[in-house]
């Protein structure tokens, strides 16, 4: 029986390896993590992350061929294939601070594999890493391995999106495996491809060299984020000219060379990866002495920041140039619908702007826990604990959140926001009642008929 171990039971390691276990009953999968609390949650009825369909997958194979454990060494010892799926956040200090990926977790995971392993291992980079990280991993493994144990390194970047992770994993557009172009590299590549081939058609499992594979992951995220910044840049032109960004995106998306996906204007993209991976690419370009290339990609992030502040300024301007002591309901705190993840959520930046203007904020999100909101906002970059206590309140219902507020600001595209009883909401609000749609999901005509003052990204009032 093939044995797989995954280091890192996060948003990627958890769902990815759970789906492998689900689809490969003949493979034993153990997901390990340094965070014992997270492992306990994976072993409980309340999984540590919310992802549609994840519960069913985990429940179907947990205890059968899927195990969650805090015993990292045992996991490493027993495995033939080891996924490294640890976090690679943007560096906060030192060389490359604010741009480069912090590879400390990848390095310590790699050192641990070298220290513990007693049999040959295929080590798989699942984390998103800068180009040529596999080279450093190889050096660490070879220098630290016990009895000259053989390690083969593969790059197998993950392309799932949160909120649709299980569907993406069950039916991926492609599985990418990079390896050294040597007989041993090809053999390792085949061993991993055989696992995916349990459910992914062979023609969708693509193979290439390590560096292309590593770079393809950064490139894919950069291209996706670039589309959003492009459509958001167009949204500003629409607001100034009377064009409608949804119509423009529709017209452009019908061109089969452009395609309709990922052209939804918004308050800005969030999530743990787009910004991090672009900044990583910017840093890589700078280190390669390609300043023009670095500047080009940096603009995608700059445009995203501009979009968020532009929206905050719109709210303030329309509320008669002041929101001091006004009450605003924030609908949605997650960075996108169908996830409870708030990493780099635009809502954090928007609430920061509102708190700087001394507004009172009522937050409602169907999936984000109050403790998470507090953690995100009581952060030296955003607000003090005193500001949070006096100016932020989290609600369990959108109706409660909207009571006695001057404006509603929609920041996440949760489906339930489309079908609320907006007449009831309107009646409970201060007048004039404003609603700002940062996701273009609401029926503006209907809202205007009720009496709302409506403002939408990418469209004139
Ligand atoms: P995460 O923070 O949710 O999970 C990472 C986990 O790794 C944490 O639980 C942490 O405790 C654990 N960990 C750290 N060092 C460890 C070690 N030495 N041994 C064992 N466990 C260790 O992060 P994530 O969102 O799952 O992302 C992981 C990687 O995947 C990142 O590189 C990210 O860029 C990439 N990625 C993320 C997504 C996504 O949608 N979140 C999608 C594709 C790729
Ligand atoms: C993204 C990529 O889509 C995945 O392929 C990739 O694996 C992942 O990053 C990663 O490397 O972490 P994710 O961030 O989970 O996935 O979610 P997306 O659906 O890409 O959304 C990212 C942000 O862009 C969200 O805030 C979303 O609301 C926003 N967005 C998305 C728009 O504003 N407009 C769009 O048209 C699409």
TrEMBL record:
Protein's recorded name: UDP-glucose 6-dehydrogenase
GO cellular component, one term: nucleus
Enzyme class of the recorded protein, top EC level: oxidoreductase
Keywords, ordered alphabetically: NAD, Oxidoreductase
Active site per the UniProt annotation: 273
SUPFAM superfamilies: 6-phosphogluconate dehydrogenase C-terminal domain-like, NAD(P)-binding Rossmann-fold domains, UDP-glucose/GDP-mannose dehydrogenase C-terminal domain
Catalytic activity annotation: UDP-alpha-D-glucose + 2 NAD(+) + H2O = UDP-alpha-D-glucuronate + 2 NADH + 3 H(+)
GO aspect biological process, one term: glycosaminoglycan biosynthetic process
Functional pathway: Nucleotide-sugar biosynthesis; UDP-alpha-D-glucuronate biosynthesis; UDP-alpha-D-glucuronate from UDP-alpha-D-glucose: step 1/1
Binding site for NAD(+): 8-13, 33, 38, 86-90, 127-128, 162, 273-276, 343
A Pfam cross-reference name: UDPG_MGDP_dh_N
Enzyme Commission number: 1.1.1.22
Similarity-based family: Belongs to the UDP-glucose/GDP-mannose dehydrogenase family.
Molecular function terms from GO: NAD binding; UDP-glucose 6-dehydrogenase activity
Domain UDP-glucose/GDP-mannose dehydrogenase C-terminal as annotated: residue spans: 329-444
